[in-house]
What does this fold into?
Amino acid sequence: MNMVSHFSKRLIKQNFRETICLEIKGEVLTSQEMMFKALRGGNLSEQENAYRGFKRDLDILISIGSRNAIISRFNCVGDALHELVRFLETHAPITASIAGASENSGTTVTAPGPKESFTYIVKSLIKGEDAHQKKIDCLNQLLKELQDLNMISHNEDKMAFRALFNGKKVKKQVQWLGNQSQLHVFIDALTEPSKQESRGVTYPINKKWITTAACFVDKNGKPFTIEGLNSPGIKGNGPKLAKELRAIHEFLK
It folds into this structure.
């Protein structure tokens, strides 16, 4: 009887733990969506304030959890908090020092070095499928989709475009034929986290628009500014072809 009772208690405890961790996982996704909207909404000052507020709250929660031994009892709590910290740092707005240079001096700020590219890692593969070849095929398809929308020239070199997603220093920038708002929408959608799975496109921490400015130039061959890319003044449903640009990356998995 004692053995059965002990087993029942362990089973109840295990099911309770699994239930709590499942609930926490759902809350993490909800929190990420809320954080992402705040970090991309409003002007740069509002984004910076949101970032500092989230960082402060997460630091407090981690500290409280550590003192009360919650994290040691439920590992998923600590994992969730640190996942949110990583998410926050990955999607943080451009740094105040870069923005300040633009606002205070009246000059435009282009991407400082080192000019790293985006990184695309194939996340899901069919059994026996070659990851390297799938990466090439997916990026070639992405280029074709952008060319069909007249965002990139049909004469653009495929290798130069694919190199924008190898995680290395950018050697050759690609000309973006669309406007600044369209580039913002495309990159935002390309790097937005998915509830289903990661789309595999990442960028150096805190450097989303720095990376974008390093990878692309406008139709006249002139550089995009970081401040302009970060806050392009998009209204309503966005610029022309916004819907198509937001959906174009769906196959990059």
